[in-house]
Amino acid sequence: MNSSGNKTIIKSFRDLEVYQNTYKAMIIVYKEVLPKLPNSEKFDLHDQLARSAKAIPRLIAEGYAKRHQRAGFQKYLDDAMGECNETIVSLEQARDLYNIDKKIIDQLVDIYDKSGRQLYKLSIAWSKFKRLTT
């Protein structure tokens, strides 16, 4: 369902709200957070945050392509949930260790937290749907 309560037809992974939100959040991470990390974090926090933020929409897209395989789709959703959690921890570290903009970090943490819950609900809904159709 979309924000107005109407059902949305899903024709592509791009139609999934969780994909849209994590893609937009990744752009914010790259433009607003990563440039503010110190050079000393280039091979640690910077790289880890960059990889996890990029991985989430990619995993959703790849998993969607394998949605006909219950176990395959499930694995990608589980991996995306794990990357959401990893991204949250990295964002909180950036905020708490380097005083990166608290407001932006808190908004991003909220997006990734919500996205993790959406991925979990999608996982449950998909497994029920697949049982009904097989």
TrEMBL record:
It comes from the Bacteria. SUPFAM superfamilies: IVS-encoded protein-like. It holds the Pfam family 23S_rRNA_IVP. This is Four helix bundle protein.
